Amino acid sequence: MATMYAWTDIKHADGVVKAGESVTAKKLGVDDDEWDQLCDSKAVRAAKYPDMPADFMGSPLEYVQKQINEQLKVAEDALSDDDAMLQSVQEAEASTSEPEDNE
Questions:
Q1: Distance of CA 78 to the CA centre of its chain
Q2: pTM to 2 decimal places
Q3: Sorting pLDDT into bands at 50, 70 and 90, what band is 8?
Q4: Are 11 and 5 in contact (CB under 8 A)?
Q5: Which has the closest alpha carbon to 60: 71, 70, 47, 75?
Q6: Which pLDDT tens digit goes with each residue over 48-83?
Q7: Which of 26, 28, 76, 97 could be joined to 12 by an S-S link, Cβ 3.0–4.6 Å?
């Protein structure tokens, strides 16, 4: 079975499993039906919980979306720089390949 992660703090007989910790039915002391309920409710998931800074004021989904948007911006900026460089090269090539007037 895949490693499963808590996506919320889960209270159990021995304390609390914090969001982001790996978790099993045995660790929580729950039966198969309770485990299935935790999985169905998405309190426990196969996807790893994002490693968010403690001061981030939003949901895990918002944090992941923020990270994706920041990476997208970096990629767009790099493409913009590449486009500008390509345009400069094309302009330089065009100016050197123009025929000279021999009049």
A1: 19
A2: 0.62
A3: very high
A4: no
A5: 47
A6: 999 889 899 999 889 989 999 999 998 888 887 777
A7: 28
